[in-house]
């Protein structure tokens, strides 16, 4: 055959080259749900595999919990470092990039304490024990209140019931004051630090707190006031053990966070020994509820005296946060953060290591997905916090250290503290995450009832209502993320009340025999937690539904309107909510269109990323740079803790504070302070509406 023309060979080679380039493009950029993607398995398959890895997870979690609770591990003590190595090793064995970050906050420990009952002439009647009956070998740190100041008092005792304002009103009507006395309070629903502060404001010299039906346990806890994080480094991280910038303990912003009188938790049997000696007016019948006291018991003061001494050891201590990172393949600069604290007052089987064991199982499952070829679209960070029990210190120091990055790059924070402390699922969330949480709950089998989902049981328990709480409290590690950085957050757990809370009864024996013997509740939390992480890390369009926010704000405004008088106007608030609702509807329509875009549409991918940023950053609009009036560390104007711990408000904390303060003032000044806070909230809502639209105001 005659030779082919040279131009024919060139054309053939050109066609082959084009075909080869097409194959390369198809292989690397064609969106596929099969496992032949360069990034491995698809998000949908990854979610199915994640749930399939539940087989045997209960035994794995039980193994972790047993190892984590062999010894007490209070933050800043030598025993705490053992768990650092344990968590680090399991993060690394799962294939995560794992590391620890050290901080040096001011922590508080007990040095010595004594308690005795004296006759009216000052002679010894009986020495009283400050040990924990449930911990006969004194394996844990003795019961105490962290940050209680050193002090001593010899004074008559007065029983103040729960130590609420209404309880002091009852005593006042009976002609009883606590000034110059030692107050005895039973533990209730209010934060213990607030009970101590109120007793101090009433003039008490000291406070003893006990729990009814404590089963021999004594509840430890912090009494640090108003705020989160290291009290000496508000707004910046305590990264240096010596020589770093710190406030002095006598500075105003520090002193206000420390209680003014010493306090101590005591066993119920010890408190009853004191209460049985009290004279004075007869105790109200409702105050005797569940107390083993005679019908004629008095509230005091005296005639006996209580001799109480406490010596605090307050010092800088090393704490360690641990991180396990899975870098995102397409948006490595967008962070989906899952966190749980590791430190415990005693053995911590419930609080917090039911959550730590569950976190390690989530890490194991994510590691298996990595081995299958999966990589998330966005970066996932697993966090094991330290010193949460002292006031959310570990998480707050990290947020303060990385505030610039987190405010611009954090998508969400998913918190689990006590993963399991009983029956029944509970959840709190930023409203735009409600719908996603419900979707995930509908995918998870209920651990107690076959053939039903967690969602089915949860809704039935709540009378057919989707009862997701709001996070207007500061009692776990979501606080710094939401209240300081404005990162949308979720907090979830099984079980409402745990009688062994912060006592030596919080051990593996209780969990394995009573709390969750099958560990199936732990598995359910792992499934919900991990699946939420996968959806938020992999969904092309972030699954944020701001319509829930609009609905919630309308409900808040209606509730507020009932409480305010006619001289105050809610019009700016209602107008801003209507503006936000309109913006949300526009965003919903835009989001539906972006859902249909293919991953290989470059311009579409950029539009989707910009849209996701608007969804992610909108929550930051609710922050006020200077924070709440007199409380600059709380910046979220919708969901931060109110100043008054007895406030009925779980929203609009600035307005709640102004209403509480108005009780002590009159006329135009009181009305103006409330109206000013209403305007502040209205402006914040307008900022969020503009952020969702992507507009400058």
Written overview of the protein:
- The protein has 697 residues and is of the alpha/beta class.
- Helices cover 39% and strands 15% of the residues.
- The chain is built from 21 helices and 16 strands.
- It has helices at 6-29, 43-52, 57-68, 78-93, 165-173, 192-201, 252-255, 268-275, 353-371, 393-401, 403-409, 434-441, 454-461, 478-484, 508-515, 520-538, 547-563, 571-595, 602-617, 653-662, 667-693; strands spanning 97-103, 106-118, 124-128, 145-146, 151-159, 182-186, 206-210, 221-222, 263-265, 305-316, 319-326, 331-341, 378-385, 410-415, 425-429, 489-494.
- It has a seven-stranded mixed β-sheet, with helices on both faces. Strands 3-2-10-5-6-7-9 form a seven-stranded mixed β-sheet, with helices on both faces. It has a two-stranded parallel sheet with strand order 4-8.
- Helix 5 (165-173) links the parallel strand 5 (151-159) and strand 6 (182-186).
- The longest helix has 27 residues, at 667-693.
- The protein is globular and about 90 Å long.
- The termini are far apart.
- 49% of the residues are buried.
- Mean pLDDT is 92; it is low at 1-9 and 15-39.
Topology:
Layout: H1 6-29, H2 43-52, H3 57-68, H4 78-93, E1 97-103, E2 106-118, E3 124-128, E4 145-146, E5 151-159, H5 165-173, E6 182-186, H6 192-201, E7 206-210, E8 221-222, H7 252-255, E9 263-265, H8 268-275, E10 305-316, E11 319-326, E12 331-341, H9 353-371, E13 378-385, H10 393-401, H11 403-409, E14 410-415, E15 425-429, H12 434-441, H13 454-461, H14 478-484, E16 489-494, H15 508-515, H16 520-538, H17 547-563, H18 571-595, H19 602-617, H20 653-662, H21 667-693
Helix pairs in contact: 2-16, 3-9, 4-9, 9-16, 10-14, 12-16, 17-18, 18-21, 20-21
């Amino acid at each position: 055959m005659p030779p082919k023309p040279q131009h024919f060979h060139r054309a053939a080679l050109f066609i082959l080259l084009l075909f080869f380039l097409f194959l390369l493009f198809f292989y690397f950029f064609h969106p596929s749900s099969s496992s032949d993607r360069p990034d491995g398995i698809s998000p949908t398959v990854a979610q199915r595999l994640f749930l399939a890895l539940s087989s045997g997870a209960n035994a794995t979690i039980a193994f972790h919990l047993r190892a984590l609770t062999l010894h007490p591990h209070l933050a800043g003590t030598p025993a705490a470092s053992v768990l650092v190595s344990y968590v680090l090793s399991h993060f690394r064995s799962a294939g995560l990039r794992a590391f620890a970050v050290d901080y040096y906050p001011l922590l508080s420990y007990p040095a010595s304490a004594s308690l005795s009952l004296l006759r009216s002439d000052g002679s010894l009647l009986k020495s009283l024990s400050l040990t924990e009956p449930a911990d006969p070998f004194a394996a844990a740190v003795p019961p105490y209140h962290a940050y209680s100041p050193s002090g001593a008092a010899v004074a008559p005792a007065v029983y103040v019931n729960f130590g609420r304002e209404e309880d002091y009103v009852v005593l006042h009507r009976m002609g009883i004051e606590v000034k110059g006395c030692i107050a005895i309070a039973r533990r209730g629903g209010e934060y213990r630090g607030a009970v101590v502060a109120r007793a101090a404001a009433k003039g008490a010299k000291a406070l003893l707190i006990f729990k009814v039906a404590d089963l021999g346990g004594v509840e430890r806890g912090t009494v640090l006031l108003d705020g989160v994080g290291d009290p000496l480094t508000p707004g910046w991280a305590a990264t240096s053990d010596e020589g770093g910038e710190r406030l002095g303990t006598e500075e105003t912003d520090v002193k206000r966070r420390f209680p003014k009188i010493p306090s101590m938790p005591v066993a119920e049997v010890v408190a009853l020994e004191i209460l049985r000696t009290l004279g004075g007016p007869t105790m109200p019948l409702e105050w005797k509820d569940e107390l083993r006291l005679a019908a004629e018991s008095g509230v005091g003061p005296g005639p006996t005296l209580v001799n109480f001494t406490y010596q605090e050891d307050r010092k800088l201590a090393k704490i360690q946060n641990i991180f396990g990172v899975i870098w995102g393949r397409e948006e490595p600069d967008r962070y989906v953060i899952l966190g749980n604290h590791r430190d415990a007052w005693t053995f911590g089987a419930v609080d917090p290591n039911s959550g730590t064991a569950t976190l390690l199982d989530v890490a194991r499952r994510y590691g298996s997905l990595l081995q299958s070829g999966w990589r998330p679209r966005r970066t996932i960070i697993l966090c094991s916090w330290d010193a949460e029990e002292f006031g959310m210190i570990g998480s707050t120091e990290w947020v303060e250290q990385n505030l610039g990055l987190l405010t611009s790059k954090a998508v969400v924070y998913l918190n689990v503290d006590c993963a399991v402390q009983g029956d029944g699922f509970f959840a709190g969330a930023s409203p735009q995450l409600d719908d996603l949480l419900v979707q995930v709950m509908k995918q998870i089998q209920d651990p107690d009832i076959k053939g039903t989902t967690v969602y089915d049981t949860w809704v039935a328990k709540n009378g057919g209502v989707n009862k997701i709480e709001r996070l207007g409290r500061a009692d776990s590690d979501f606080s710094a993320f939401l209240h300081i950085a404005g990162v949308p957050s979720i907090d979830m757990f099984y079980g409402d009340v745990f009688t062994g809370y912060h006592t030596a009864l919080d051990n593996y024996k209780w969990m394995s025999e009573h709390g969750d013997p099958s560990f199936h509740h732990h598995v359910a939390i792992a499934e919900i937690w991990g699946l939420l992480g996968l959806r938020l890390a992999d969904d092309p369009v972030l699954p944020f539904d701001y319509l829930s926010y609009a609905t919630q704000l309308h409900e808040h405004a209606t509730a507020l309107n009932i409480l305010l008088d006619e001289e105050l106007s809610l019009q700016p608030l209602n107008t801003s909510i209507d503006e936000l609702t309109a913006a949300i509807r526009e965003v919903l329509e835009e989001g539906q269109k972006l859902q249909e875009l293919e991953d290989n549409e470059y311009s579409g991918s950029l539009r989707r990323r910009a849209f996701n940023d608007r969804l992610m950053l909108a929550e930051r609009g609710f922050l006020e740079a200077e924070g709440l009036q007199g409380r600059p560390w709380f910046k979220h104007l919708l969901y931060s803790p109110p100043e008054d711990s007895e406030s009925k408000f779980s929203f609009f904390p600035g307005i709640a504070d102004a209403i509480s303060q108005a009780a002590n003032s009159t006329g135009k000044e009181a009305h103006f302070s409330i109206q000013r806070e209403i305007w502040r909230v209205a402006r914040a809502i307008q900022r969020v509406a503009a952020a969702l639209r992507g507009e400058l105001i």
